[in-house]
Amino acid sequence: MNRRNILFSALYAVQWLAIGLAVPAWAAMNIEIVGGTAHRIQVAVGPFLRVPLEVTDPSQVMQADLAKSGYFNLARPAGLEVGDEQAVPYGRLRAEGFDAVVVGALNPRPDGSFEVRFRLFDSVRVRQLAGLSFVAHASGLRGIGHRIADEVHKALISEPGAYGGRLAYVVKRNGRYALEVSDADGFNPVTVTESLEPLISPAWSPDGQSLAYVSFEDKKPVVYVQHLAQGKRQAVARFKGSNSAPAWSPDGRKLAVALSRDGISQIYLVDLEGGAPQRLVRSQSIDTEPAFSADGRHLYFTSDRGGSPQIYRQELESGRVERMTFGSDYCVSSALSADGRWMAFVQRVDGRFRVSVLDLQNRQTQVLTDTDHDESPSFAPNGRTLLYATLIQGRGVLATVSVNGTIRQRLTQNGNLREPAWSPAM
Q1: Average confidence (pLDDT) over 219-237
Q2: Which of 131, 171, 256, 274 is 20 to 30 A distant from 396 in Cα terms?
Q3: Beta bridge partners of 132
Q4: Strands ordered across the beta sheet of 166-173
């Protein structure tokens, strides 16, 4: 690999690798709201009836999700036990300032599972807005709480919530790098793989069942795929030179990767079943960080073909390439929303690295973050929230921001977290 390629690749991968830390036993992430809407919806939550003491109460999970969203204020009024049997006290709720109320119950089933029912009522218009039932074993009740939060959010805000799915991220603890997976609220963490050498660039498969990532365990970057359910992994790009920046094709059968096998970073398509890589982008410049559009028609990538790192888009059928970013001399790390509306990326603004979003319909760009070292944007399944990594007082944390920049959160624990990726909708 030539010197120019090394320096260019270092812009994306190496900066954070020198951060050292000592992390005690894992604790769930702390989620701090650092922004919110001016007028929040007031929601009363009645305790779900018939919840055994030894299992997770889905209503508490839902309440924690909604409370941290920045859109809602939640409370449990004394004596509010509506469940499935009693009438909703609309007059009392309105008098106490509540716009809506969530109630529900758990009904045990003969096989040891539970039927979870919930209902959402509009206290002002005196009507039911949503109501569903789910069946789950005790281990799945936390996930049901997230699903209820999504339903309540959608009914009250008229857009999908971002409480479900899983997060993948890299943490370095005690001199070892670990690729972790957790629920979106930081619970149920699992270590996918560990290494004494750096791990970077995790990417979820479209079905959420596998993770591609880059490991330096062979003293050079190699792309692996970890199949989570089977616990099996395979090296899918271990060619001469650097193998990096994996991105899944929409059908989940192939990966676009940046390979330097020809002396400079170029983008290829590799099949998980093997075979020779297929060249996707051709230039005399450094091309890296591929990302497919959801419909598979376009490939977005970072290139210095114009003299500085910028994001380009290639129509795969015709090969036509167009530049997507302007207004900064450094734009990298594109991420696409599932609905095709938004492209997130990192750009340098007054010497600081900020997450920005480009509206692909009107080509307007908005800077979303205000910290100095923001990187690795990843869309939530709802396409309205972005997850990214940043530095706060020298410590790596994860953060989220809404695509309009109004709702922000920080997700922290006792350590430095980098390279986040939010799983697709399951």
Answers
A1: 94
A2: 256
A3: 118
A4: 190-195, 176-183, 166-173, 417-422
Euclidean distance between CA atoms 31 and 401, whole angstroms: 13
Length of the chain (residues): 426
Residue ranges per domain, the chain? 3-17+165-422, 38-157
Nearest to 201 by CA among 14, 347, 374: 14
Angstrom distance (rounded) from CA 135 to CA 115:
4
Tokens of 320: 């036509």
If one compares 110 and 34, the residue with the highest pLDDT of the two is 110
* Cβ–Cβ under 8 Å, residues 190 and 182: yes
Predicted confidence (pLDDT) at residue 186 exceeds the cutoff of 50: yes
Pairing of strands 114-122, 100-108: antiparallel
Does an H or E element contain 11, and which? helix 3-13
User: What backbone torsions phi and psi does residue 144 show, to the nearest 5 degrees?
Assistant: -65, -40
- Output the CA–CA distances (angstroms, integers) from residue 189 to 132, 165, 275, in the order listed: 28, 13, 35
- Looking up tokens 């959402």 gives 120
Q: How is domain 38-157 classified at the CATH fold level?
A: Rossmann fold (3.40.50)
The pairs formed by 283-287 with CB atoms below 8 angstroms and a separation of 24 or more are: 286/4, 286/5, 286/8, 286/9, 287/258
Q: Which two tokens stand for residue 20?
A: 């050292």
What's the pLDDT tens digit per position in 366-402?
999 999 999 999 999 999 999 999 998 888 999 999 9
Instruction: Using CB atoms within 10 Å of the CB of residue 349, give its burial: 0 to 12 exposed, 13 to 18 middle, 19+ buried.
Output: middle
Cα(254)–Cα(256) distance, rounded to whole angstroms? 7
Structure tokens belonging to residue 216:
């330096």
Residue range 3-17+165-422, CATH number = 2.120.10.30
Q: What distance lies between CA 414 and its chain's CA centroid?
A: 20
Q: What angle do CA 219, 220, 222 make, to 5 degrees?
A: 120
Return the bridge partners of 300, or none.
Answer: 291, 313
Q: Which of 264, 268, 278, 331 is nearest to 302 (CA)?
A: 331
In contact, 96 and 38? CB cutoff 8 Å: no
From the CB of residue 207, how many other CB atoms can be counted at a distance below 10 Å? 12
When pLDDT is averaged across residues 42-47 and rounded to a whole number, the result is 90
Instruction: Extract the tokens encoding 305.
Output: 């073909």
Average pLDDT for residues 154-170, to the nearest whole number? 93
Q: What's the mean pLDDT in 346-359?
A: 97
Distance from C-alpha of 298 to C-alpha of 295, rounded to nearest angstrom: 8
DSSP 12: H
